[in-house]
Design brief:
heterodimer; A: about 280 residues; mainly alpha; B: about 325 residues; two-stranded antiparallel ribbon; 13 helices; globular
Chain lengths: ~280, ~325
């Protein structure tokens, strides 16, 4: 409970939480507020924001409602960010736990693979994956997850290295517990908090990666995503710059919210490190 | 010499990593729909199955995958990256042509991010929890959350469309021929916006790390000693704190080299710079898998060489590293 109190004492963390709640509310309410397909033709193309009450944020170059696309885009960003982060953290925990617990050649092999993933620029690997497996919502989400796991893996490994010879683990070993039980039942719960906090960083990067991919028109073109809209607005950037500007602010706010919440959690859970 | 030996050992250790990457990506690309011959046939406007078979045989694509992989690795040893059917040139020369703008862009962005990250980090740490710190930290958070391609587009709107101060894209003005110093100025003016765009997120990261590392070092005993000896605060910071506080920053350059190369894919597309990143994007769109594999190889090499240099700088900054 102390942690919760500490969290709410930081204005930045509270601001981040409020922003995140707003984005989540947008994602949930998209269906009620804009029951029509956000990618369907809605009105005249390129209506400026605040000039027509029917289209509060205006329309894009093909006459689609920008506000509707922003609301539905929140769904896509949170979905891709959330699922990709879950994939990355899951792979990271598995790799890091086995490498850190067993050490020796297991550690060597797993860390070589991690190093290989870190040496290759993650956006270049993402391009390769999209080139090979195509760009549907599912493949893009998995691809973003697959390029993001090395950092959580290293973090988990470091935690395991420091925990694996603690007394409670030795006690468990004396009791005759199996390695798998020790890894997932005993050590992992203790190693988890910093990894969970780090998940916010992974999620922020995942959202940025997906939007960059969508901007380059290499993500799923059949969903209303913020990156897609920015890419579309690029064609009319000289005059109707608002088509690109609005979804960019949405991405900025979402990534900012996720980072602030992550930092707030970090400070609340590790009060000694506050201010670092 | 000792430094060089240590860094050299690290360099040798990265060779297995490089081979692992190449094997992995090579096998991955086998799953890609369509191969080089398909791309060539499409380029030629179609052809019959017999021609396709001939071509596959010519390029060794009819062999088993392990044999093909062996052939590819053997050719790489001789620095032969294969042939790009889209550009009609060897992949190595296509990549070599595109390398200078990317290296220029990365160096400029890194210098920008490192320098301003350092300065802002020091200012924030000196006035910790006062308004300069709050302002800088907030700006850092916002920069970190800004999608680079979006910042680039908005910069084009402001500086190229409205103010008309800077060109909206390209590497140099192709309308007029410039030589010598004027060409340098021309290229520099084309690189201002891309440098800011690519550097922004790294600026945010560097200033945050610099601030944290300054705060940590400022509390160490030897800094108290320096102050006790009567040195003024500026001298304490520049002569004693900075050198040690810089270590995490230098580590970060090595860690971020890959991210920066990835970021240049997007930035080069925004500003239509003819660099390696844009080539990566084009080869994905045009299904030029040979070139894509070549880019993977070259970017891994780039990241490894940056890390080699970082090792050298690191040992120079902290002599204890080689002693251990």
């Amino acid at each position: 409970m102390d942690a919760v109190k500490r969290y709410f004492r930081s204005p930045a963390a509270v601001a981040g939480l409020i922003l995140l709640v707003i984005v989540i509310a947008m994602a949930i309410s998209a269906g009620f507020l804009y029951p029509r397909d956000p990618l369907a033709l809605a009105g005249r193309p390129l209506i400026w924001p605040f000039s027509n009450p029917r289209f509060l944020l205006g329309t894009d170059n093909s006459g689609r409602d920008i506000a509707a696309q922003i609301f539905y885009g929140a769904r896509i960003s949170l979905l891709i960010g959330g699922v990709a982060t879950a994939i990355a953290i899951l792979i990271g925990i598995l790799v890091g736990a086995f490498a850190g617990y067993y050490g020796g050649w297991v550690d060597n092999v797993l860390m070589r693979i991690t190093e290989a993933f870190q040496t290759l620029p993650n956006f270049v690997l993402l391009l390769v994956l999209v080139a090979v497996f195509g760009s549907t919502l599912t493949t893009v989400t998995i691809a973003v997850g697959v390029v993001s796991w090395p950092a959580p893996a290293r973090l988990t490994r470091a935690e395991f290295l420091s925990l694996r010879n603690r007394e409670f683990v030795q006690a468990g070993r004396t009791l005759g517990m199996k390695n798998i039980q020790l890894i997932f039942g005993e050590i992992l719960p203790n190693a988890l908090p910093p990894v969970i906090v780090y998940a916010s960083v992974v999620m922020a990067v995942a959202i940025l990666l997906e939007s960059a991919l969508a901007f380059l028109r290499l993500s799923d073109p059949n969903v209303a995503s913020w990156g897609n809209l920015i890419g579309l607005g690029r064609d009319v950037l000289r005059v109707q710059w608002y088509v690109s500007a609005i979804p960019g602010i949405a991405i900025l706010v979402t990534v900012l919210a996720v980072s602030l919440v992550g930092q707030g959690l970090n400070d609340a859970l590790n009060p000694r490190l506050k201010g670092r | 010499m000792r430094i060089l030996g240590l860094a050299g050992r690290r360099l040798a250790a990265s060779i297995p990593t490089l081979i692992l990457i190449l094997i992995g990506v090579f096998l991955l690309l086998q799953f890609a729909p369509g191969d080089t011959v398909d791309a060539m046939m499409a380029q030629m406007g179609g052809g019959d199955a017999a021609t396709a078979r001939e071509l596959r045989k010519f390029y060794g694509l009819d062999l088993s995958i392990p044999t093909q992989l062996g052939n590819y690795l053997w050719r790489l040893v001789r620095l032969d990256l294969g042939f790009s059917s889209i550009y009609g040139k060897p992949v190595a020369s296509v990549i070599l042509e595109r390398l200078p703008p990317t290296i220029l862009l990365m160096t400029a962005s890194l210098s920008f991010a490192f320098f301003f990250g350092l300065v802002f980090g020091v200012i924030a740490a000196r006035g910790v929890n006062r308004w300069p710190d709050t302002l800088i930290s907030t700006l850092g958070l916002i920069f970190y959350a800004t999608p680079s391609f979006w910042f680039g587009l908005m910069a084009i709107v402001v500086f190229s469309v409205y103010l008309q101060w800077l060109p909206p894209g390209g590497f140099e003005d192709i309308g007029t021929v410039r030589t010598g110093i004027w060409r340098v100025f021309d290229i520099a003016s084309h690189l201002v916006l891309p440098t800011l765009t690519l550097g922004l997120i790294f600026l945010a990261i560097y200033l945050r790390i610099m601030r944290a590392s300054m705060l940590e070092v400022l509390n160490l005993d030897y800094v108290r000693t320096a102050r006790a000896k009567g040195l003024d605060e500026t001298r304490v910071v520049t002569r004693h704190v900075l050198r040690n506080a810089l270590l995490p920053m230098v580590t970060l350059i090595g860690l971020q080299a890959g991210t920066m190369l990835g970021g240049s894919v997007v930035v080069e597309s925004v500003f239509s710079l003819p660099g390696l990143g844009r080539l990566a994007y084009e080869s994905v769109v045009q299904r030029d898998l040979n070139t894509l594999l070549g880019i993977v190889f070259v970017s891994a090499l780039l990241v490894i060489s940056v890390n080699f240099v970082v090792d050298l700088i690191y040992a120079r900054l902290d002599p204890r590293i080689t002693a251990g």
